Amino acid sequence: MYRRIKELREDRDLTQADIAKLLGTTQQQYSKIEKGQSDISGEKLKLLANFYNISADYILGLSNEPKQIK
Question: 44: which residues sit within 8 A by CB, 6+ positions away?
Answer without folding.
Answer: 23, 25, 33
